[in-house]
Amino acid sequence: MSVLRRDPTTNRWVIFGDPPPAARTPGDACPFCTGHESMTPPEIVAWGPPQRRPDAPGWQVRVVPNARPLLRIESALERHADLIYDTTSGTGAHEIVIETPEHQRSLAALPKAQVALVLKAWAERIRDLKKDPRFRSIFVFKNQGALAGAWMPDHSHSQVMGLPVTPKALQEILAVARAHYRDKERCVFCDILREELEYGQRLVQVTEHFVALAPYASRYPYEYWILPREHSADYETTEPALFDDLAGVLLASLGRLEDILPEPAYNLFLYSSPNRDARKGYWTTLAQDFHWHIAIMPRLVQTAGFEVGSGLYANPVLPEDAARMLRGGTPSGDDGAGAPSG
Amino acid sequence: MSVLRRDPTTNRWVIFGDPPPAARTPGDACPFCTGHESMTPPEIVAWGPPQRRPDAPGWQVRVVPNARPLLRIESALERHADLIYDTTSGTGAHEIVIETPEHQRSLAALPKAQVALVLKAWAERIRDLKKDPRFRSIFVFKNQGALAGAWMPDHSHSQVMGLPVTPKALQEILAVARAHYRDKERCVFCDILREELEYGQRLVQVTEHFVALAPYASRYPYEYWILPREHSADYETTEPALFDDLAGVLLASLGRLEDILPEPAYNLFLYSSPNRDARKGYWTTLAQDFHWHIAIMPRLVQTAGFEVGSGLYANPVLPEDAARMLRGGTPSGDDGAGAPSG
Question: What value does the CA radius of gyration of chain B take, rounded to a whole number of Å?
Answer without folding.
Answer: 20
